[in-house]
Amino acid sequence: MRSTLRASPPHTPAPARGKPFNLGAALGAEDYLDAVDRVLSLGLRGAQEREISRVLVDCCLQEKAYNPFYRLVAKSLCAHSKQHRVSFRYALADQIKELGSSESPRRGRNLMRLAGGLAADGQVPLLVLQALPWEEGVSKGMQAALCSFVEAFFLDGGNEAVGGAFLRLSS
After folding, report:
1. Which of 68, 73, 107, 151 is deepest in the core (most CB within 10 A)?
2. Are the beta carbons of 11 and 59 closer than 8 angstroms?
3. Interatomic CA distance for residues 167 and 105, integer angstroms
């Protein structure tokens, strides 16, 4: 059974560098599986392939309410190749570093919900939280974002997934 979750294309981010991948391939898809198939069929390599994770994370952050479509696409891409897992890890870490200076609690909640879900799925390590600006203290906005991470990690992930994440952390 295919999920009917879809991305809403309100804001299309400009890529940071180079020629972007066709974001319409993902956003115009019927469901997340179709989005993954379309993105993978583009045959991107190198910097363009790494840009996929950055653009998907940025799209997730721009949503008014968290959309699980992005987690499902990210999870499927991460399951497809190690390169995607590494790209998502760094894309999330880069955004988490900026979390302290973010003026939008919505962006922080969306980011941490995505990161928590991918950590629960075993696609990114819990160490992605190292990127948080801990030395600056924990603001109210960061507390809300951390709550979103914990909620996604413990509630969306099953007992085995959560246990596996901590097992990987300890090894």
Report:
1. 73
2. yes
3. 31
Tell me the pLDDT tens digit for each residue of 77-114. Answer: 999 999 999 999 999 999 998 876 767 889 999 999 99
User: How far apart are the C-alpha atoms of 32 and 9, rounded to whole Å?
Assistant: 14
Give residue 4's identity as a one-letter amino acid code.
Answer: T
The rounded distance, in Å, linking the Cα atoms of 11 and 31 is: 19
- What distance lies between CA 114 and its chain's CA centroid? 5
Residue 147: count of CB within 10 angstroms of its CB: 14
Spatial separation of the C-alpha atoms in residues 29 and 5, rounded to whole Å? 10
Average pLDDT of the chain to the nearest whole number:
81
- Phi then psi dihedrals of residue 10, to 5 deg: -70, -40
Q: Which of 9-23, 114-128, 138-152 has the lowest mean pLDDT?
A: 9-23
- The Cα–Cα gap between 168 and 171 comes to 5
